[in-house]
Amino acid sequence: MNIDREVAPEQAGFDARRLARLDAHFAGYVDDGRLAGWQIVVARAGKVVHSSTYGARDAEAGLPVEPDTQWRIYSMTKPITSVAAMMLWEEGHFELTDPISRWLPEFADVRVFDKGSASQPFTVPAMEPIRVWHLLTHTSGLTYGFLRTSVVDALYRKAGYDVLPKTGVDLAQASRDWAALPLLFQPGTAWGYGVSTDVLGRLVEVVSGRSLPDFLRTRIFEPLGMVDTCWSVEAGSKRMAALYVPGPDGRATRFDPIGKAAFEAPAAPSGGGGLISTAADYQRFMQMLLQRGTLAGERLLSSRTIGFMTRNHLPGGVDLDTLQTGGFAETTFEGVGFGLGFAVVRDPVPARVWSSPGTYYWGGAASTAFWVDPVERLTVGLYTQMMPSSTYPLRPQLRQLVYSALID
């Protein structure tokens, strides 16, 4: 499915010459070899005002980025899984304050790292249970093995959970494995990036009685017309972008050891980072969010639920800079809160990059990014395949260029 410009920039409050700066600026990343290629889509009030591609989806094969290129969206999976969970919440299956051990008994007696080393950790009992809202806000104490910033993530790697999932383990077993590891902090006391949304995906499975892929396909992808969003593609697919990392010379270097996972059906579908999608598909998801839960006659969530999800749910109403534990994250921390599945801008001034208060967003490990600005009725998506996402300041630069093109 292609995604074409639907309205002239001037009709949507943009200066076309200023909007063209997007392509000129990001083309530089490809021309000097830092990125292989990219795709950018900007829409306002549901109409695409800018849609562009540049460079290669697979530089080694000489294949250019096309409008229907498929991208690993990694952590941009998280908002989708969060929507799935909130659909079940709307149906009364659970309350956000419920302990997750009600459905996932392995989390009944979790412990928290206190001191020691990966070879001899000392733990204490959790002061309160992990609750559903802890998973949605990354305040559960669960972490990632690939962060390499704590004893706890070293324990994850020791248990077989690094960048790629443990071989042959399904989501149910992965959940049991994570529950057996100590938490990084007491639930609800800090913010730490980790497998919270993967556990949320397992919760969706148990509560709904369906696999996570089946639930997402029938309840979200098919109703929204997201025809190219999936967990894997066939080997040899020509639409799939290759994955890259910065090489010793700073140029994009193909990285198949992780990239090849896109061609294998996952044993444990990752609700936190497992999806492949296209710009057109994710645009439909963003538009559903902007329209407060509905698209093309299909309603996934109540308008009030979308409003609730996109408020700051961090304890005390503080920002991430106050609660974050350090390490890898898909967002800057200053002036940013966290809702139920999204980072939420409280005040753009501390980060020194403009976006309207109330804008919500996230990104993926391969430098993809999106945001929804309800004030300006703006949705923006960036798609590329450079790991890690902190390699280049693509996201703040994208905001800077998009907002400076608005002139109404």
From TrEMBL:
Pfam families (UniProt xref): Beta-lactamase (PF00144)
Keyword Heme: no
Record bears the keyword Hydrolase: yes
GO molecular function: hydrolase activity
All copies of domain Beta-lactamase-related, residue ranges: 22-398
Record-linked InterPro entries: Beta-lactam-related, Beta-lactam/transpept-like, Diverse_Enzym_Activities
Keywords: Hydrolase
Protein name listed in UniProt: Serine hydrolase
